[in-house]
């Protein structure tokens, strides 16, 4: 699972392997605790019986395919998490040998839209599908939601904010700079590159605010939006660092944590809620800037996911980024994108002809006066993180000396 962070030491071990640099260059992916090889290596070291007994190591969606039809396979874009090279169409055999991970334990790699197999008859009966139902490979949620957002032109970006924020951009440029902050993934079926990544919390921030401050309210989301609108731009001086679970793209800092900076006696729930709303927009801007370091320019942002239902946040995102924001009618673009991949792969329908999956609900234009103000606040937001960055690791080291190691249960966001 992506959020399993036990394999930090294994990340360093892989990075120090002689064959790693070549694998990183060919896959275009820097190894982190979020991807597959460190997790597999951790299993090999600490659960050797399970490692030896296992036939395959699969991502959750690939495991679902295996359960449905008995085929251990994954798509090209998911396979990158194993340092797979799309250009060479190969796993990093030299690196795998050095790590002692048999390639036979990794799934077969196919293109999106390709047939995996036929659903097991007993499962077809259980879930109400016809016998002989086809199981077709699509991709993981972030890629599906990007395709489902209906991006088609150079510079169009997609912000899908469910629990996490997925921010990616389409580019047809042949030469892009690798910055080390963002993924650049060739999507051969669409003849374009997908640039960007996913963070750890997007809409999940709003769920956290609900649990902390609005748990007993009858209509918490409506009240949150009302409260935030009754504060003011800049949350009356509060900056919120939204890294409650550490951060993936674009900071790649597992130690970072959330911070309210600038709290005063005058502040209320309205201001802290507004600060969280603005932080959700600052997240988009940090992602957008990381993407633009590749020499690709974001032109517009297509918005979907649960967070897109909050109109105030959508407007703040337009104001903070200075970009036109298109809010889609279909919020569940992950399902739409999976359907589009199936139609493209099985019926050979070009993605450009599948536009009915991503209709516009409204277009939001940035208020450029607000944008100028947010430029100053965003600068403070980045400076706050940079100043506190060395403190996050110190905090974790301190906690190791004083923590009682009791298990903590966190309600699902």
Order of helices and strands: HHHHHEHHEEHEHEEEEHHEEHEHEHEH
**Low-confidence runs (pLDDT<50, min 5 residues)?**
none
Q: What is the SS-derived class?
A: alpha/beta
CATH class of the largest domain: Alpha Beta
Report how far apart the termini are: 16 Å
The CATH superfamily of the largest domain is ATPase, nucleotide binding domain
Find the CATH topology of the largest domain. Nucleotidyltransferase, domain 5
Instruction: Note the overall shape.
Output: globular
- State mean pLDDT (0 to 100 scale): 93
Summarize the main sheet: 7 strands, mixed
What is the number of helices? Answer: 15
Task: Classify the helix fraction into a percent range.
Answer: 40-55%
Radius of gyration: 22 Å
Topology, number of strands: 13
Order of strands side by side in the largest beta sheet?
7-8-6-5-11-12-13
